[in-house]
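Interim report, section 4.2 (structural modelling).
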Amino acid sequence: MKISLKLKVNGRIHRVTVKPNEILLNVLRDRLHLTGTKYGCGIGECGACTVLLGGRAVLSCQTLAVSVAGREIATIEGLQEGSKLHPIQEAFIDEGAIQCGFCTPGMVLSAKELIDSNPDPSPEQIKDAIRGNLCRCTGYTNIIRAVQKGAEIMRNEKKGGNS
Amino acid sequence: MRDFQFVKPRDLNELLSIKKEKGGKALILAGGTNLLVYIKDGVFKEGVIVDITGLEALKGIRREKDRVEIGPAVTIADLLDSELLKKPSPLFRR
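Predicted structure of the assembly:
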């Protein structure tokens, strides 16, 4: 059985034909060539494959492509505007929150989900939000600082009215 | 035929009739953390994947007098967001 469906990724509609058991992660990476989303454990434990589904962080390795047809999907590639990185991405660079970088896309998206609903999160709230994202380099301290900084930049942009 | 099929029932009745018809071949998909890992590992090689994530009847968190009712399709994220659960059961959210 093959199913033809429309996936809405980063605002663009892609028509793909998939098998019923194809996970969203593989479709994003292998068909749409959006390789920013990482295949880590494949069993929903590491968070490297995190994407946003309707603004909520979900694990794309635990999501069937068919089951999210037509829904709003955002990957790390969709965050920047033109050549301008998203404030959270900038903050990760500035704070040295990236070591090997494998967890970074998932971390950034989990952080975005948090900040979108809580513009000024405490370190505890940040830890809570990224508890599903493992960093094998254990760079958590810098990551938490980067999320705080990203949130701060976003608050300031909002105040300035230029976001 | 070793293959998977996919259905997304629109209501509880449709879900129940699929389950009745397909029996053990009906593989219920909610969060996916069991089923999709089993499929990945080859535990299941065929079957009808029945996606219940859209079924409103299985969602919802309701407060009864001395208890809270949580629908089987409620996600952990829903639980963490629930205003209803914040007061009576802070432990639950931890």
